[in-house]
Fold these 4 entries.
Entry 1:
Amino acid sequence: MHKQAGKVLSPRERVYVSHTYAFGKRLTDIVISLLALIVLSPLILVLSVLIFIQDGHSPFYKQVRIGQYGKKFGMYKFRSMIFNADQVLKNDPELYKKYIANSFKLPEGEDPRVTKVGAFIRKTSLDEIPQFINVLMGQMSLVGPRPIVEKEEAEYGNRLRKFLSAKPGALGLWQASGRANIGYPERCDIELEYVDNASYWYDVKVFFACCISILKKDGAF
C-alpha cells in the first residue's frame, strides 16, 4: 500500500533507517546548516536587498512541498520570480500546460516570470541558500531526494511510499546527475537510487558531486 495524495503515511507504512545513520545525519545537518547561515549572512543580506529593491516585495519565497512520510512543509528559497508568480502561472492556461508537460518547470529562457536578479541566483544556485533554514528546522536534510509538490506524487506511482521514506534534501542525486536537464520518469529512478543506497558515506559522496554540479551550473535555470 502506498501513500495516497494528500495523506500522511501511518507509522506502520513507514520505512525506517538505522538509528546510528539517522543520528549522524541529523547532527551533521544541524552543524553544517548553522555554520552556513552564519558564514553566508553577509551574502544573504546583500541578496535580500537586491531582490527587495526590484519591486518592494519580500526577498523570500515559501512553497508547500511534500516532506518525509508525506508531511507537508513550507520550503524557503530566495524569490527569483515576480511577486505572485504562482498565480500568474495558473492564470495563463498555455503557460501552465507547458509547465506540466515539461516536468513541472518551464524550459530555460521561456519563463517570463523570472527576474534579472532571479536568473542570476538560479544559475548560480544562490536561490537555494534559505533552505539551510529548513535543514536546521529538521524539515529537510542536507542530502536526500528533492522535495516535490503535490502534483508530482503521481509520477512515482506505487513507488511513492519508498520515495517518501527518506527525508528530502537541499542537495541530492538528481541535482548531481543533471538537475533540470533530467525530467520524469528518469528523475524517479535517480531519486529512488539514492533511497536504495542511502548511508552516511553515500551522502558525503552525493554532497561533493552536487558541489561540482553547482560549479558547472548543470541544469540550473
Note: The longest strand covers residues 60-66.
Entry 2:
Amino acid sequence: MHADPDRVIAAARGWLGTPYHDQASLKSVGCDCLGLARGVWREVVGPEPFPIPPYSRDWGESGSHEVLANGAQRMMPQVGPHEAGPGALVLFRMTPRAMAKHVGILTGSASFIHSYERLGVIEETLTLAWRRRIAFAFLFPRPHNI
C-alpha cells in the first residue's frame, strides 16, 4: 500500500519557501530536491531507511545505471510516469541520455513541488517541458506505524 496522497502533498507544501542548499534536508533552513523528498519521507513514512551518500550535482551525468531510481526502487512502489498522480515522487531526466537526477512531488495533474537552485522550494506548473522530462515515478509507502 502507499501513503495518502493528501498527506504527502501537505507535507511537501510545508517545505515551500525553504531555501536551496545542496545536499541538505532541513525544513525552513535549506534543502535540494532530494533533501525535500527525504524530508517528506520522514514526515509521512518515518525514519530514513539508510544514509544518503554524497552525490554529484551534474544533471548531464551519464552512467550505466540509474543511481537515484535504483535507490527509490528499493523503498517505494514504482508506477509508470503517465500513471503518476498527486502525491507521487517523480524523477526528471534533465538532458537526453543523462541519468534522472532531479526530483519533484506532484501536487495535481498540472503542478508539482521541487527545490530548485536560486529559487528554493517552490510549487509550479508541470509544463510540457517538465512533463517530457519525467523518467520515473514512485509512490511513498504507508507510514511504518500503521
Note: Helices lie at 5-13, 33-44, 67-75, 128-133.
Entry 3:
Amino acid sequence: MSKLRSELVTGVALLSTGLLAGAFGYGVVNVAATFDVVPLDVRLTFHTALMQRNGVVMQTAMALAAISSLALAALSRGRPRQLAGVAAALVVTSFLVTRFGNVPINGRIKVWAVTSAPADHAAILDQWESYNVIRTVAALAAFVLVIAVSRMKSQPG
C-alpha cells in the first residue's frame, strides 16, 4: 500500500506542478506577449476577463501543486525529501507573488478597463509582467524538481 500511495502522490505532484508551470509558461510566452502588441483598451478588457476565469483555476492548481509536493516530501527520504520540500516552497512562492504582486495590479487593471489608465500605466504593467515571470520561473523550477524526485524514486535500490 505504501508504494502505491507514494506512486499516486508522485503522479499527482508531477501532474499538478506540470499543469501550473505549463499554464504560467503559456501565459508568459503567448498571452503576455500578445498583450504587448494590442491596443491598451483591448489588453485591459481581455486581461480583466481572463483574470475572472483564471482565479479559481489557478488557485486550485497552486493549492494542489503545493499540497502534493508537500505530501511527496513527507513520503520521501534523503535528497528526494529535500527537493520535494523545495518544490513545495517554490509553489508557495508562486502563490505569494501572485497574491501580493499580480492580484493587486489586476484590481487596478479592472478599474482602468471601465475608466482610463493612469499616466504611469506602462510602468505598472511592466511590474505585472515582472511578477508574472517570477511566478512562472518558480513554478517551472518546482516542476523540474518534482521530475527529479520522481526519477530518483524510480531508481532501484
Note: The mean pLDDT is 95.
Entry 4:
Amino acid sequence: MSVVRTDTEPLTIVFQDDGLVPNNPMPFLVYKAAVDVSKNPEATIERLFGMNGWGAMWRNGVYDFAHYHATVHEVLGVARGRARVQFGGDQGRALEIAAGDVAILPAGTGHQCLSASDDFCVIGAYPPGPPMDLQRPTPENHARALKTIPLVAIPASDPVMGTDGPLMRLWRRT
C-alpha cells in the first residue's frame, strides 16, 4: 500500500532572481498533503525519499535565516507540525507547510523559516551528486551561484512519485 496520494499534483512556482537569491528557472514544487504521515512519520518520509533515489537525509527544521543551495537540489518532507516558510527570497512567497506536505527546491531556491510549531520536523534529502552547500544571500555568493546552478543535473526521479512523477516533466533546462 502506497503512502502517497496518487491523485496529487504539485503547486508550481517560478521565483525570479532578485539580485541576491538566484532562484532557478525550473519551478519550485509543493505537494500538499501528499504523504500519509499517520504512522512513523519520519521513517515513512525517509523510506519514500530513499526508494526514489534521494539520500543524504537529515531530520530537523528549516533554518531561520535566508539561504539557498547552489550545487544541489533539495527536498523537504514535513513529518510533523507546521511552519510558515519564505521561499524564493525577499521577493518570493511565504507558504504554510504542514505534516504530509513535500517541497522540492531546485538549486538556488531561497528559503527561510518565519515561524513554526514546537513539533515541526522536516526530513531533508538530496539526489545523488555533490554534497549540500549552504549559501547566504550576498553579492559574492550570488555571482558564484550563477555559474554553478546551471551545472546541477536534473534528478533521475521525483522524490515523491518516482521516475514517472511530475518533476520529470516540469523540470527542463531552458
Note: The two ends are 37 Å apart (CA to CA).
